[in-house]
Amino acid sequence: MNRVANTLISGLLLTTALSGTAWADDAKKDAVEYRQSVYQVIKGNFAPMAQVVKGEASYDADSFTLRAERVAALSKMALEGFIPETDMLSMDVKTGAKPNIWEEWDDFKAKNAALATESEKLLEVAKTGDLDKIKAQFAETGKTCKSCHDKFREK
Ligand code: HEC
C-alpha cells in the first residue's frame, strides 16, 4: 500500500517537474516571439515611412502620422520580451539577440528609451506636416535602430 502511494506521489512530482520545465521553455519561446513580432510590426510601419522620406512613395500626412504613432507606441513594448536567459546561447529558438543585452542591461534599456524618445518626437513633427522637419527627425529615429542593432543584435 505504502509502496503504491509512494510510486504515485513520485510519479506526480515527476510530472509536475516536467511540466514546470515545459512551461518555462514555452514562456521563453513566447518571449522571443513576442519581441520579434514587435520589431516586425515596427518595421512594417517604419519601412513605408522610409519610402516617403526617400521620395519613393508619395507623402500622405494622415497615414504617415498614423505610422509614426504606431512606432512610438510599439517602442514601449519591446523591452518586456527580453526576459533573462533568452539569449542565443541558451535557446533552441532562433534569436538574433546577443547575450550582452543582459550583461549591459542599462545600456540596452537606454538604447530602447532613445527609440521611444525619438519616435515620440517624430510623431509630434509628423503632426505639423512639415516634410523637411519630418525627414530630419525620421533620420534621427532610424539612427536609434542602428545604434542598438550594431551592439546588441547578431549580424
Ligand atoms: C534597444 C535595442 C533595439 C532598438 C532600439 C531596435 N531594435 Fe530591432 N532588434 C533588436 C534586437 C535585440 C533584435 C533581435 C530580437 C530577437 O531575435 O530575439 C531586433 C530585431 C529586429 C528585427 C527582426 C525581428 C525578427 O523577426 O527576427 C527587425 C525587423 C528590427 N529589429 C527592426 C527594428 C527597427 C526598424 C528599429 C527602429 C525603428 C529597431 N529594430 C530598433 C534590438 C533593437
UniProtKB/TrEMBL annotation:
Gene Ontology molecular function: electron transfer activity; heme binding; iron ion binding
- InterPro entries on file: Cyt_c/b562, Cyt_c_II, Cyt_c_prime, Cyt_c_prime_subgr
Q: Which GO terms describe its cellular component?
A: periplasmic space
Which keywords has UniProt assigned to this entry? Electron transport, Heme, Iron, Metal-binding, Signal, Transport
Residues binding heme c are 145, 148-149
Asked if Lipid metabolism is a keyword of the record, the answer is no
Q: Which PROSITE patterns match?
A: CYTCII
Per the record, a Pfam family?
Cytochrom_C_2
Set out the biological process GO terms recorded for this chain's protein: electron transport chain
Record's superkingdom? Bacteria
Give the signal peptide as a residue range, or say none if absent: 1-24
- What is known about its processing and modification? Binds 1 heme group per subunit.
The molecule here is called Cytochrome C
Q: Report the source organism.
A: Thioflexithrix psekupsensis
